[in-house]
Every structure is written in C-alpha cells, then in structure tokens.
Amino acid sequence: MATARTTYQDGRGAEGAAPTGHTFVWVSLRDPSPEELASVQHEFALPGSLIEDPDTSANRPALEVSDQLVFAEVNTISWVAAEEVVRLARVQLVLGDGFVISVDRNEPAVERVSQDLRADAELAGAGPAAVLTCVLDHAVERYGPVLSALNDAVDEATQAVFNADRSRPTERLYHLARQVLEFRRAAAPLVEMLDRLATELPAPTGDRFRRHFRLQRPHLQHLVDGADALGNLLANALQAYLAEVSVRQNTDMRRISAWAAIWAVPTLLAGIYGMNFRHMPELGWRFGYPLVLVVMVAICLGLYRAFRHYGWL
User: Strands (DSSP E) along the chain, which ranges?
Assistant: First the structure.
C-alpha cells in the first residue's frame, strides 16, 4: 500500500508540501488499509461511507453529489489477450473545496494523471476538477482498443459457426458474450456521469470542463452502442449455431436411416435362408445361392442410388 500527498499551488505540485494560499491537495491512496481510509476520512471530515475499499464498492453509483462534495467512481478496463478477458478496475475520487482524494488498486491511470498535472501547470491550476477530468480521459481512452480487441475475437468466433470441421464454438461464444457485458457495465455508467457533469456541474468541477464533458460523451456512447451491436451479433451467432447443429443432426439421422435400410435387405434375406427349413425356394438348385447374393447386391445398390438421389447420402 502507498499514500501520496501532493499540494498544487499555481499549477505547480510539491510532494508533501503544506497548503498555502489558493491551493489544492491531492491525496492518492493506493491499495489502502482500513486504518488509512479512516485517517483520511477523519482529516477531511468526510462521511464515513463516502470512500471505502474498492473491492467492496461494486454497487456504488457512478456519481454522487453531497453538499460541497462530489464522489465519482470511474471504471477502467484492460484486455487480457491470452485469456480473452476484459479486466475491470475502479478509481474512487472525492472532490471537495481545495482537495481531492483518490483510492485505487494499482491503477496506471492515476499515475498518468499525476504526470499530466506535473507537465501542464495550466491544467493543474484548474483545481480538483482537473484530476477527475484526467482520470475520465485516460479511462475512456482505453475503452476503444478494448472494444476493437473484442470485435476481432467476436469476428473469429462467429466465423467458426459455419466451419466444415464441425468445431464447437458454443463455449467461446458464451464467454465473449460475458466479456461484452462486462465492457458495457463499465462504460454505460460513465455515459451517465458525463451527462451529469456536463449539465449539473457540481461546484468542485468548475465550468472550465463543461464543453469537454459534452464532447467526450458522444464518443463514449458510440463505444457503448458498439458493445450492444457485438452482443446482438453473438446472440445471433449462437442461434445460428444451434440451428446449424439441428440441421446437421437431421442430416446425420437421415444418413444413418439410409444405411440401416440398405443393410436391412441382406440381413432379412440371410435370416430367412438361415432358418434351415427343408422346403424353401431354390434350395436344391445349383445357382440358388449365387442368385440370392445377386438379388441382395441389386436391391442394396438400388436403395443406395435412391437415397443418393433424394440427398440422404
């Protein structure tokens, strides 16, 4: 676990500096212990339930506004190609008058935001809203590549539905459908958050980023719509695969039935002549046995050609 405290004054940041004049403090909690959370809550007089362990906050709304405080939980994602898994992480942010607190589990976006603020004094001079805006920017930036990777995996899986090798893509289709759902669960709340930030604009966010939130919202909505399209494609592919399986089963049953009918003829004739009765047709004739064999072959060939003609074989 690690705690970083940076004070920004006139757009310049200093680790551990005491706030003076018009400044804001950013307290970054990485993998915090319950004691660290409690200490920060007490120091900034935060409600006891406002920030908590990221692992226990899965159901928290994306944005909450309370008095002069703003709570935001931003979902970040990454793509694990080897496992074809969308991995979710969360960054919690509390913005207040002159301070911002972030809680995360080793999320790279937070470190990148810190670098951005150090490199851009004007951005850092915008106050706590700059941290929230940058975290959102870096989170949304990673959604596009993940959706593109998902799209490639879905294309490959759907092409396997009609392969002649009779592979079974059902498990992969279900798995990818789950990953698309995880993507949408992460992205959709951010669309609502951007809507609220672009219209309600709670005090700590300031007016500077209003247009930025409005411009960012359509891009994220486009990604959510893309995820919905992938979900529909997977559902249709699964239905097509089930229909294909049904057709293949019917075809297999017809072939089995056709071969069973062909083999039934020699089985029937051999069974009749194997009953060892004395008075049977052609038992005493020299060519009786060859004649029966010829009749068997002729009937089997006739059935085979008939089944081939009707597409059963």
Answer: 2-9, 12-15, 23-30, 63-66, 69-80, 85-96, 99-104
* Residue 136 contacts residue 194 (beta carbons within 8 Å): yes
How far apart, in whole angstroms, are the C-alpha atoms of residue 144 and residue 220?
A: 9
SS3 for 123?
A: helix
Element (H, E) at 1: none
In sequence order, which ranges of 169-311 are alpha helices (DSSP H)?
Answer: 170-199, 210-273, 288-309
pLDDT-derived band of residue 2, with 50, 70 and 90 as boundaries?
low
Give residue 265's pLDDT.
75
Q: How far apart are CA 225 and CA 191, in angstroms?
A: 11
- Tokens found for residue 38: 């409690």
- Per-residue model confidence as pLDDT tens digits over 29-64: 888 888 888 888 888 888 766 666 555 555 555 788
Q: Between 284 and 94, where is the model more confident?
A: 94
Give the tokens for residue 276.
């060892």
pTM of model > 0.90: no
Give the integer Cα–Cα distance in Å for 176 and 230. 9
Distance separating alpha carbons of residues 82 and 103, to the nearest angstrom = 29
Angle at which helix 170-199 crosses helix 128-159, to 10 degrees, equals 150
**pLDDT tens, position by position, 248-257:** 777 777 777 7
* Residue whose entry in the numeric block shows the structure tokens 């072939």: 255
Please measure the distance between the N-terminal and C-terminal CA atoms of the chain and give it in whole angstroms.
68
The answer to whether the CB of 300 falls within 8 A of the CB of 308 is no
Say which residue, 287 or 126, is predicted with more confidence. Answer: 126
Beta strand 85-96 with 99-104 is: antiparallel
Per DSSP, the three-state class of 236 is: helix
Structure tokens at 306: 């008939």
Distance CA(36)–CA(67), nearest Å, equals 24
Q: What is the dihedral of CA 255, 257, 259, 262, to 10 degrees?
A: -140
